[in-house]
3-oxoacyl-[acyl-carrier-protein] reductase (Friedmanniomyces simplex), 291 residues
Amino acid sequence: MASKRVEQIAAHLNFPKGMLNGQVAIVTGSGQGIGAETARLFANEGAKVVISDIDAAKAKKVAEDINASGGKALAIPGDMLDDKYLSELVKKTAEFGNGKIHIIVNNAGYTWDGVIHKTTDKQWDTIIALHNTQPFKLVRAAAPYFRVKDGEPRSVVNISSTSGLHGNAGQANYALAKAGVTGLTKTIAKEWGPAFGVRANTVAFGHIMTRLTAAKEEGAFVTTPDGQKVALGIPQAQKAAREDGNAAFKDIPLGRPGTATEAASAILAVVSPLFSYVSGQTLSVTGGRNM
């Protein structure tokens, strides 16, 4: 089995039809931002990509754009917090992939910040469920498509954050959830690697330009299942203080935030044949911050 995988990897290094040719990928939270860019890059490399997002219109638009560009994508919108949706997502993805799923990128999520003494149970439970419990349930539901011995590559990527690696004031819920992601990743790698060759890795992002790091005053928000609106972003005064004049991003050696495309490119690298002997690791994509 191992020799067969090595031969396939060697063949793929020529990339005649893309690094992910023939593979089927689920990218959660891919209606916009890093997830959408990840889906686009995967499709460019030959993968059939499932666009999973709670916003149906955005998911369909991403899929339409990929298909119009010659790629293959299917929008399967839904709420990650709904267990029935996870079952539907796996079932429809397998149908789209002719009975196979090769890649899962657990990217969906948002922040719901609050200092420790003011964080509500609802804030806590929602963020833990979204970033830990539901990704676990998705991987568990997809187990029959990963615990196989067909010699084809299988990869799980869980998205984390520097908040999970180093903590962050006002983000006890998010920091715990993103720290927990690394434990889930390592367990998948240890359980499914030996017999089935499944690789699992974590990608931890620093300051990437998305709606989570934009000014809160821009009005981006998400809506919880019960209809509550959660504002996203960093308050303008706090954001301005961090990015003041010549001191902008002074703790980032590259001196700037990352783009969604750069973030997505790191995810592509991790699932590609170039990382075929990398598993159970956390890749920090931070521009050098916290090195």
Observations:
- The two ends are 37 Å apart (CA to CA).
- The chain is about 45% helix and 15% strand.
- The mean pLDDT is 90.
